[in-house]
Design goal:
Nucleotidyltransferase, domain 5, 5-stranded mixed sheet, binds adenosine-5'-triphosphate, binds fe (ii) ion
C-alpha cells in the first residue's frame, strides 16, 4: 500500500518526528533538542522535555502541506538503545498514534536506523559503517543476517568525550561543532605539528578508548596549551583511531564501501580523513547529509519502511522499550 511511514526518535537528547514514503523518499524531520542548563543530560529532565514538546512537534509535522494523517501506513519508533525515560515517551506516543490510526507499529533498533538512512541517502550497498555518535562508537558490517559489531569503544562514545571536554572548558552542549570550529582556528596560520600536543592513542585491537585522551587533553590545557591547539589535537587523535579501525574492518571483510553515521559524522575533518584512507585503498567513502547524521525521526521511519516491506510488525505486547538493545540483536532480513 502506498503512503507514508512516520518515525519517532527519542533515545536521548533529541525528540524528533520524520517520515519516508513507501517508495523510500526521505522527508525532513521536525525535531526539538534538549539542552541541559548545566552538566550532562539528566534522563528524567530530557524525558520531560520530550513530553512537553510532543504537541508542538506534531502540530508542525501536520501543518506541512505534503502531510496528511490519512496517508500514514505505519508508525515506527526507537525501541532502543537509549535512556529509559526518554525511550518511554517516544514509545507511548507511537503506540497511541498507531492505535488511533489503526496502522502497524514498528519497534526499531536506533543503531541500525543510522545505517539504513545512510544507505538510502548515499546509495551504498554493503558498507562497513563507522558509527560515531555521543553514546556510541562502533565499526559495523553486515554478515550472516546481522549487522555485526567488529570493534567499539571500551569506555565512552567519541561524541560524549568531545562534549565532556567542551563542558569542562565552559562550552555549551553539543560540544563537537564548537571543537571543530576551534580546531579550524588553530589551522588558520598554516600547517601544524602534533609534537607538543600528543595524546594517548586508544586503539586496542579492533576496539577503541577515549577517556584517557579526555583526561590528557584537559591536562594539556592546564599546562598552558591553547584551547584551539588542544581541540585540533583531540580531533586528530580521536578521529585517527576510528579511521584506523575502520580501515582494518575494510581489510578483514573485503568490503569496498565505508559509510559514516551518527552525530560526529557531521565533522568535516573526520569526513576528510575517512576519504583519504578510502582513496588510498581504492574504496569508496560515503556520508549522509548532516540532518541525517544526527538523531532524527526520518531514519527511524526509513528502517520502519524496510521492516514493513518484509512483513514485520511489532505487537503492542512486544513494544516495551529496550535501553540496552545491541546493534547485532536485530535480524536483518531486508536487502
Ligand atoms: P546515539 O544514540 O546514536 O549514541 P546521540 O544521542 O549521541 O546518538 P547524535 O545526534 O547521533 O546523538 O550525536 C550527537 C553527538 O554528535 C554529540 O556528541 C555532538 O557533539 C556530536 N557532533 C555533532 N556535530 C559535530 C561535529 N561537527 N563535530 C564533532 N561532533 C559533532
Ligand atoms: Fe544516534
Amino acid at each position: 500500500m502506498e503512503g507514508i511511514i512516520l518515525g519517532i526518535e527519542s533515545t536521548a537528547h533529541t525528540f524528533s518526528f520524520g517520515s519516508v514514503s513507501t517508495e523510500g523518499e526521505l522527508f525532513p524531520s521536525f525535531s526539538s533538542l534538549f539542552r541541559p542548563e548545566e552538566g550532562g543530560i539528566h534522563p528524567r529532565e530530557a524525558a520531560d522535555h520530550h513530553s512537553e514538546s510532543t504537541s508542538e512537534l506534531l502540530k508542525k509535522l501536520s501543518s506541512n502541506e505534503d502531510f496528511s494523517w490519512d496517508s500514514i501506513v505505519a508508525v515506527a519508533f526507537s525501541q532502543g538503545p537509549g535512556l529509559g525515560p526518554c525511550l518511554r515517551v517516544g514509545a507511548s506516543v507511537a503506540r497511541t498514534l498507531a492505535t488511533r490510526l489503526s496502522v502497524p507499529l514498528l519497534g526499531v533498533n536506533h543503531c541500525v536506523a543510522h545505517i539504513e538512512v545512510g544507505r538510502n541517502q548515499t546509495g551504498c550497498i554493503d558498507p562497513v559503517l563507522l558509527y560515531v555518535s555521543g553514546g556510541n562508537t562502533q565499526v559495523i558490517a553486515r554478515a550472516d543476517g546481522r549487522y555485526r559489531v567488529l570493534g567499539e569503544t571500551l569506555d565512552i562514545g567519541i561524541g560524549n568525550m568531545l562534549d565532556k571536554f567542551a563542558r569542562n572548558q565552559g562550552m555549551p552542549f553539543p560540544g563537537g561543532p564548537k571543537i571543530e570550529q576551534l580546531a579550524l582556528e588553530h589551522l588558520k596560520n598554516g600547517p601544524k605539528s602534533l609534537d607538543e600536543a600528543y595524546l594517548p592513542y586508544g586503539v586496542h585491537g579492533m576496539d577503541l578508548a577515549f577517556s584517557g585522551m579526555l583526561t590528557s587533553a584537559t591536562q594539556k590545557i592546564s599546562e598552558g596549551l591553547s584551547l584551539e591547539q588542544v581541540c585540533w589535537s583531540l580531533q586528530e587523535h580521536s578521529f585517527a583511531t576510528c579511521v584506523e579501525v575502520a580501515e582494518r574492518a575494510l581489510a578483514h571483510t573485503g568490503k569496498t564501501e565505508l559509510l559514516l553515521g551518527g552525530g560526529v559524522a557531521c565533522n568535516d575533518r573526520l569526513r576528510e580523513m575517512s576519504k583519504i584512507m578510502c582513496d588510498e585503498r581504492g574504496a569508496n567513502c560515503f556520508w549522509p547529509e548532516k540532518p541525517f547524521c544526527i538523531d532524527n525521526g526520518t531514519m527511524i521511519a526509513e528502517l520502519g519502511r524496510r521492516m514493513l516491506e518484509c512483513g514485520i510488525e511489532t505487537k503492542i505486547m512486544d513494544s516495551a522499550i529496550d535501553p540496552t538493545l545491541r546493534t547485532d540483536n536485530t535480524a536483518v532480513v531486508w536487502q
